[in-house]
Amino acid sequence: xxxxxxxxxxxxxxxxxxxxxxxxxxxxxxxxxxxxxxxxxxxxxxxxxxxxxxxxxxxxxxxxxxxxxxxxxxxxxxxxxxxxxxxxxxxxxxxxxxxxxxxxxxxxxxxxxxxxxxxxxxxxxxxxxxxxxxxxxxxxxxxxxxxxxxxxxxxxxxxxxxxxxxxxxxxxxxxxxxxxxxxxxxxxxxxxxxxxxxxxxxxxxxxxxxxxxxxxxxxxxxxxxxxxxxxxxxxxxxxxxxxxxxxxxxxxxxxxxxxxxxxxxxxxx
Length: 269
Hints:
By secondary structure, this protein is α/β, with parallel strands linked by helices. 35% of the residues lie in helices and 16% in strands.
């Protein structure tokens, strides 16, 4: 992302000084960044689709604890995007994935730093057209192996999650955060909307949750993955195809009349 573009959303002075370049070599341990084969990655079947299908329209997208950036890489790009991770090697891998897919990073700034501090510093610049998604390493207590450490920069202590949730509760923009249910999350996010869904891990099937500080959106940023599961997504996809076929069979004026009626309906939402 160019400096001027970032400043448009975060104000003058929020330049690429905060986006520290990650020069560390990308490690060969169990990261496999581009494929999403990474503990806690949202690259599992149906997972990133479920998350993207809850995001309202936005101009600025911020993904904290980005890791492999599976949601960022699959969603329709915003005008500007910011990915935050504290691990320099992870940031380097994500930048390579972005460059491989988009050639030049496609307007994404990768910030190598502490997500809590960064969000607290910049939350006042977020607007209704900003969407923030957080995917922190889950609490130690809710993991299948609480004593095992998976990341170079861990985040499993309850006090760290408490600080994060406190910052997120002070953000007025749409916020989504993934995790496993816990007493802490149930208490601090009691008034947030929660979506539960099944996903597979190396240890078997689990129920993950997505908390949102906003009501179910009437409009989405990316409609391609609408649906609560594979069958519903396929049903909606077939329905869209049928409607497109009907439109193509209409005369141009008739098709325009139908589209105008749809636009009128959308403006009334």
